[in-house]
Specification:
heterodimer, A: FAD/NAD(P)-binding domain, Flavocytochrome C3, Chain A, domain 1, Methane Monooxygenase Hydroxylase, Chain G, domain 1, 5-stranded antiparallel beta sheet, 16 helices, 19 strands, B: Ubiquitin-like (UB roll), two-stranded antiparallel ribbon, elongated
Chain lengths: 636, 254
């Protein structure tokens, strides 16, 4: 597998400009001759459809739900980062670049991250112009708040619904192009395979989720904007439809999968309450602006939080990390919570939680002010737990939330398959081993609005395209293989449901490859997952209905999650260092903090599919730090 | 500590794909606790049906945190269930008690054709947005975000309307199947922002036209939409839309 990251020449400040100047362009009159397939309608997919449609390309967009507006970007709460420095508190493009590289524990590519920081400001301009109602100060200018891993206040927000407002902005821009005829939207479609012909991605096979028919679509390029794979843990903050299937299909067709073991566990989620639990709900990181995290100093202290006096509480984040306090990055906060709970100082009925307390903030600012900032989050907390977060501290616990790993892409966002691109959470490129809060929205919109619209033309203008047709062998084979997989699932008629398998997989992954990983636990997982796979293909039950069949949809997703889990664990085993969200028990400092190993692991792991039943091949992209010197990541 | 459990009876609307109508089917479910969500209760039932080799109830949800607008059911006659200003996914079983009989139906409105059981097609709402629910600005052409200050109260008001999740509850609750709260919310949001000003006339004319042609009805001041809206969108959205519509008609040169 050839890994050419295509990083442009020049110093870091000039690379993106150099790239854009040297890139080939497509004449406006020729753009409509190119069919662009976009899979997924979240921030990156919707914004890519909008920007490419504006330029005049012929875009086809595919999405699972009934409306593209329901993609899971909608659920992002806290905000979006940008280096505007409107607060004049020392921010700059370079500082956002630095914070993101450091936050990612020096496992991301400098050139991509610098570009992201540069573009961040244009994103805010564009979003405001498209009608996103960001929070404002009394003077009428935009407001900011702070997020983890930064000492400046650079996060723009729309109450606790920033993802919703940004997605609806991108969606509305896409609908404008739908009205103009440049974008055609195909809802209730799930992509099940990618078709490669003459070495290029030239089409996709989708299942129409209403009729059950397999449909074929042809194009000159395929953009996967299909999000992350945190649902491999079964319980996560992701929506039910989030899956790895599109990325997994790409991997099996030759796209390298990068750093699958880099998964983010978010520190502030509502704890699970029982076996029935179907998802975990996030409480935005922005709450840590005003909420203080604590546990009792005494082990097994089961008193009500209000009965625990101040001097018997341990505000452990403030104690251990005085420079960043409650706003340490997510990986640090999650592991600290786990340590407290492992010490027996967890709270609540299960002991699997820590407190997030607003009493001080309410005393200082008043309940109204807190309500204005986070009202919808307190409402949600009340509905789920039946507890009033204004009166009693919230109980929170870490949960799988985001995946930094994803399809390997070069500077142009192209995977190792020509003409196959990956945008947003689906790629691996910008967050290294840990993503900072409010940076996912930034990356999704950067990739979709500003990067792909500049890099895709370069590919289209340089590539030679042969004609393709649905009856070409490659398309026929792809349809046949999808069709036989579906027939196989329907024919097993076993005794366990796809959800039961998914839950079992989640237990393996959380217990053996979750917040803390060891050689022993990972090797155990590598033994258990194949057993689960074997049992799945012998004993799964799917009702005999070839049309609208949600159990079949679920079974297809779970089948891919099981296969993918094996790769994730393998990657975690190979990376014998701790970095960011990946914590290896063998690689820690004396204080129990993560210990990175730059000498041996300063690279991107890129896994190559070697065929059914064969071990995947590990390729490495060495990371070069020409501007920032990797140092021990300290938030103390 | 053993949690106390309870059991309920469900009457669920079942409708085969392609059929014009359906029927209620009765299911019993036990072992529930208050901290189980309503959709998790349906998950438990569906898992049980699968184990018995029966087809599960078709029902949709996605984010399960009240923001994607995917879930939407009529529970005992209440759109989105008994909790005020909430979505079905946020409803928990602690709102019910032992031996309750709960009737579950899909959102019913002519512009929302049924697909199967509790699943409907709400794409007509996308068609309304497509008719004008946007600001025409190309990527990369915007001025600095702070070049146009917007009064805080005005921006907050725009945000109140922008909070719509497109679930269609307002349509389902309205005796006329009107989409005026949904449409009005988008029009109100964009007309409250200076960026939306240049297109405000053409926007309201086109969106109202689309709304009418898709078969949505008119407002007769029942206030049902406001009562069920999970995001507490106020009926002033409709008043705003009507004012914009009248103004646009006077301003229109056609």
């Amino acid at each position: 597998m050839k890994l050419d990251s295509k990083i442009p020449s020049g110093n870091i400040q000039q690379k993106w400009d150099n790239y854009k100047f040297n890139a080939k362009l497509v004449n406006p009159n020729n753009r409509k001759k190119f069919d662009i397939i976009i899979v997924g309608s979240g921030l990156s997919g919707a914004s890519a459809a909008a920007s490419l449609g504006e330029q005049g390309y012929n875009v086809k967009l595919f999405t699972i739900p009934d409306s593209p507006r329901r993609a899971h970007s909608i659920a992002a709460q806290g905000g979006i980062n940008a280096a505007k420095n409107y607060k004049y508190d020392g921010d700059s493009v370079y500082r956002l670049f630095y914070d993101t590289i450091k936050g990612g524990d020096y496992r991301a590519r400098e050139a991509n991250v610098y570009r992201l920081a540069q573009i961040s400001n244009q994103i805010i301009d564009h979003c405001v112009a498209t009608g996103v109602p960001f929070a404002r100060e009394y003077g009428g200018l935009l407001a900011n708040r702070s997020f983890g891993g930064a000492q400046v206040s650079r996060t723009f927000y729309a109450r606790g619904q920033t993802g919703q407002q940004l997605l609806l902005g991108a969606y509305s821009q896409m609908m404008r192009q739908a009205a103009a005829g440049t974008v055609k939207i195909f809802p209730r479609r799930e992509m099940l395979d990618i078709v490669i012909k003459d070495g290029k991605a030239r089409g996709i096979i989708v299942r129409n989720l209403v009729t059950g028919e397999l449909e074929t679509y042809l194009g000159h390029a395929v953009l996967l904007c299909t999000g992350g794979y945190a649902n491999v843990f079964y319980l996560s903050t992701n929506a039910a439809n989030c899956n790895v299937s599109a990325a997994w299909a790409a991997y099996k067709k030759g796209a390298g999968f990068a750093n699958p073991c880099f998964t983010q566990i978010h520190p502030t989620c509502i704890p699970r309450s029982g076996e029935h639990q179907s998802k975990l709900t996030l409480m935005s990181e922005s709450l840590r602006n005003d909420g203080r995290v604590w546990v009792p100093k005494k082990k097994g202290d089961s008193r009500n939080p209000s009965e625990i006096p101040e001097d018997e509480r341990d505000y452990y984040l403030e104690r251990i990390y005085p420079a960043f306090g409650n706003l340490v990055p997510r990986d640090i906060a999650s592991r600290a919570a786990k340590r407290m709970i492992d010490e027996g100082r967890g709270v609540g009925p299960t002991g699997q939680a820590v407190y997030l307390d607003f009493a001080d903030a309410i005393a200082k600012q008043g309940e109204d002010k807190i309500k204005e900032k986070y009202g919808n989050l307190f409402d949600m907390y009340y509905r789920i737990t039946d507890e009033n977060g204004y009166k009693t501290p919230m109980r929170i616990y870490p949960a799988p939330h985001y995946t930094m790993g994803g399809l390997w892409v070069d500077y142009e966002l192209m995977t190792t398959v020509e003409g196959l691109f990956a945008l947003g959470e689906a790629n691996f490129s910008d967050h290294g081993a840990n993503r900072l809060g409010a940076s996912a929205l930034m990356q999704g919109l950067a990739d979709g609005y500003f990067v792909i619209s500049a890099t895709l033309p370069n590919y289209l203008a340089n590539a030679k395209f042969n004609s393709v047709s649905e009856s070409d062998d490659e398309f026929v084979h792809a349809r046949e293989s999808v069709s036989s997989k579906i027939k196989k699932l329907l024919s097993i008629k076993g005794s366990k449901t796809p959800t039961e398998f998914h839950r079992e997989l989640g237990n393996i992954m959380w217990d053996l490859c979750g917040m803390s990983r060891s050689e022993e636990s990972l090797k155990k997982a590598l033994k258990e997952i194949p057993k689960l796979k074997e049992e799945f293909w012998q004993n799964v039950y799917v009702p005999q209905n070839e049309k609208f069949n949600q159990t079949l949809e679920k079974a297809l997703k779970v089948a891919d999650f099981i296969e993918f889990a094996q790769l994730l664990v393998k990657d975690a085993l190979e990376r014998r260092e701790s970095c960011g969200g990946h914590f290896r028990e063998e690689s820690t400092t004396k204080e129990g903090e993560a210990k990175r190993d730059d000498e041996n692991f300063s690279f991107v792991s890129v896994w190559e599919y070697a065929g059914e039943g064969k071990e995947p091949i590990l390729n490495k992209e060495e990371l070069k730090f020409e501007n920032l010197k990797p140092t021990v990541r300290s938030y103390k | 500590m053993e949690k106390k459990t309870f059991g309920i009876t469900l009457r669920v609307w079942k409708q085969e794909q392609g059929e014009q109508t359906g029927h209620f089917e009765i299911y019993k479910i036990d072992g529930l606790t208050g901290d189980i969500s309503f959709l998790e209760m349906l998950d438990i039932l569906n898992e049980k049906l699968l184990k018995e080799g029966r087809e599960p109830i078709a029902v949709e949800s996605d984010c399960r945190e009240g923001i994607c607008g995917c879930c939407g059911l009529v529970i005992n006659g209440d759109v989105h269930g008994p909790d005020e200003h909430s979505t079905v996914c946020q409803l928990h079983m602690r709102r019910f008690k032992d031996k309750d009989v709960i009737t579950i139906e899909p959102f019913r409105a002519a512009p929302f054709p049924p697909i199967k059981d509790l699943v409907i097609d709400r794409s007509a709402m996308d068609s309304i947005i497509k008719a004008g629910g946007y600001i025409s600005v190309n990527t990369g052409s915007a001025p600095d975000a702070n070049s146009i200050p917007i009064e805080k109260a005005q921006a907050e008001k725009a945000m109140d309307f922008a909070a719509c999740i497109g679930c269609g509850a307002c349509v389902a609750a309205c005796p006329n199947s009107a989409a005026m709260l949904f449409t009005g919310a988008k029009i109100a949001q964009l007309s409250l922002l200076p960026q939306g000003n240049p297109e405000r006339n053409i926007r309201v004319l086109n969106m109202v036209k689309a709304m009418d042609s898709l078969g949505f009805g008119n407002c007769s001041n029942e206030y049902e939409c406001e009562a069920v809206c999970p995001k507490e969108i106020r009926i002033s959205a409709i008043a705003k839309m009507n004012r914009e519509f009248i103004k646009a008609n006077f301003a229109s040169e056609q």
